[in-house]
Design goal:
4 helices, about 80 residues
Length: about 80
Amino acid sequence: MGLFGGNRDEAIRKRFEEIFEKGSTETESEFLDSLNEITTAVELSETYSTNRKLKIYELLSQLSNCSPKERHKYANKLMRAL
């Protein structure tokens, strides 16, 4: 079992990867707006437990508030959680 274990929603994970890759060519505001799509998808998903959702929200918050240099670190953690 991985770091977070449990069920995963591959569609959400794949969409996050697409948003993250596209984020390198977007403005900060556009990138943050795109991340809102992931927040909503996680909220509506029945795949994740409440504790897992809270961890994902925490990582999304950290990703949203970090410098562009640190994005890969938090994105990797988030991909593992998704």
